[in-house]
Specification:
With 53 residues, the protein is mostly helical. The chain has 2 helices and no strands.
C-alpha cells in the first residue's frame, strides 16, 4: 500500500516549496493549515448535527 507513497515528484514539490517559501515559513504554514482544517472539520460536524432531527 505504501510502496508508491513517496514518488520523485513529491520530492520535487518539497524542494520547490523550500526554495519559494524558505525553511522558516514552512512550519508556520503547516501549522496554520492544520488549524484551518480542524476548524473546517468542526464546522462541518456542527452543520451535520444541526440537520439531524
Amino acid at each position: 500500500m505504501f510502496r508508491n507513497a513517496v514518488q520523485p515528484w513529491h520530492l520535487l514539490v518539497l524542494v520547490v516549496c523550500l526554495l519559494v517559501f524558505g525553511s522558516k515559513k514552512l512550519p508556520d504554514m503547516a501549522r496554520s493549515l492544520g488549524r484551518s482544517m480542524r476548524i473546517l472539520k468542526s464546522e462541518a460536524r456542527a452543520l451535520r448535527a444541526d440537520d439531524t432531527p
